[in-house]
Every structure is written in structure tokens, then in C-alpha cells.
Amino acid sequence: MGVRFEELAWRETPIGLISLRRRRDPSLDVEVYEVKLDDEYLMSSLFPVAEIELARLGLAPLSGQGLDVVVGGLGLGYTARTALSDERVGSLLVVEAIEDVIDWHRRGLLPFAAGLAADPRTRFVRADFFAAVADGTGFDPREPARRFHAVLLDVDHSPRNVLHPGHAPFYTPDGLRRLAAHLHPDGVFALWSDDPPDADFEAVLAEVFRTARAHVVPFANPLTGGQSANTVYVAQR
Q1: pLDDT by residue (tens digit) across 190-230?
Q2: Residue 219 near residue 47 (C-beta atoms within 8 A)
């Protein structure tokens, strides 16, 4: 029998203790990778569907080749890995505030994300996504004025349930206008949320972007034996 539980990495950060752990779920007979912030679960390899759909839905409205994409929040790597599977993507900039999370991928601790760190299109930027928007410095330190075709964000639980109070201004009209300034015309902003569609936030998106839509992404929940759902917002300039 293999190891039932192993803590692979952990680090104290300004927003709490972040840890990566691997466990064997005997009822499902699968190996599960989980990220926790203090005692709160951030993500699990049992539920990757909406993170995958964040990339698919976010890139779907775009046309052309050589797309420049930003992923905000690396986590287990599902969104970034799915973006790279789109042959139209020419470059992928992953903005992650915690160096240790980037290191998980560079060390190959997540087998299902294999190839992400080694792909020549990928570049990791250790930075606070929200600060980069708020202060106008942009996502690419090599080219502060650079614009992108898509920004895919998965950091907070939802626009209302943020991991740090400093993130909250991002989800206002002013915050989203600052984000939109980093997009090409017709560029897309896509956001993962753990909550059901929020009509108030949809109205905020519609105030800033030409189009905005909330997609409900259902997925099988092996822990309950039923179905759960996340939301992916897609807004286009």
C-alpha cells in the first residue's frame, strides 16, 4: 500500500500558510492533490473541470493566431495547462504571488501539469496580480505597456469572497477598467468563481466590457455522489 498522506510543500505567506499535500482516497482509489491556505481548501485535483473551462471559455471568443495570454493564479496548473493545449496561444505569462507555488511546477510535484514549466511559451512572473492592475505596472516586467488577448483569473473564491481585503477594489468598475487597459481591442477577461452567478457583478462587468456572460459549469462531485457547479465569467472588450 502507498503512502496515504504526504505534505509535499508549505510556506508562511502574507495571506497565511499555504501548503500542497497529496493523499490517497481509499473510497475512490485515486491520488488527490490539494492546496490549502491555513485550514481552508483552495483547490483539489478532484474538481478540475471549471479551472479547465476557464481557459476554454476564455479563449473561445478570440480569433487569430499568436495569442498572448495571462493566467492570474497558478495553483495546480489546470488553467495554464489547458491554455497551452490551444495551438493558437503564442505566449503564456503566469502571474503568481507565491514563489513556492511556481516552484511546485518547476520541481515536477504535479504530474498532471507536466510540461507546463518546460513549454517554451510559458513564463512565470512572481508578482501580485491585483497590485499589478492597481498600480498600472502591468503583468510583464520586461514590457510594462504590453497588452494581451486574454486574461484568465483564478485566485479568489469569488468577487464577494476574496482571500485578502486588498483584492476587493479589483472587482469594481474602476478596477476592471484598469484591467481592461491591459487588453487588446476585443480582448477577453475570464474569471473563475466558486459562487453561483452574481447579477450585481455581471452588471459591473457589463458597465466596463462590450459583452459579459456568466457560464455555469457543472461537474460530478465524487465526494457527495451528486453534482456541484462553479461559475466562469467571460467579458470581452
Answers
A1: 999 999 999 999 999 999 999 999 999 999 887 777 899 99
A2: yes
| DSSP category for residue 202 | H
pLDDT tens-digit profile of 45-82?
888 999 999 999 999 999 999 999 999 999 999 999 99
Q: How far is CA 129 from the centre of its chain?
A: 11
Distance of CA 227 to the CA centre of its chain: 22
What's the pTM value of the predicted model, to 2 decimals?
0.92
CB neighbourhood size of 121 (10 A):
14
The Cα 122–Cα 124 span in angstroms is 7
Measuring CA to CA, how many Å separate 33 from each of 24, 48, 107, 232? 9, 11, 15, 22
Please report which helix (H) or strand (E) contains residue 43, including its range: strand 40-44
Please tell me the distance from the alpha carbon of residue 45 to that of residue 101, in angstroms, as a whole number: 15
Q: Report the distance separating Cα 104 and Cα 84, nearest Å.
A: 18
* CA-based radius of gyration for the chain: 17
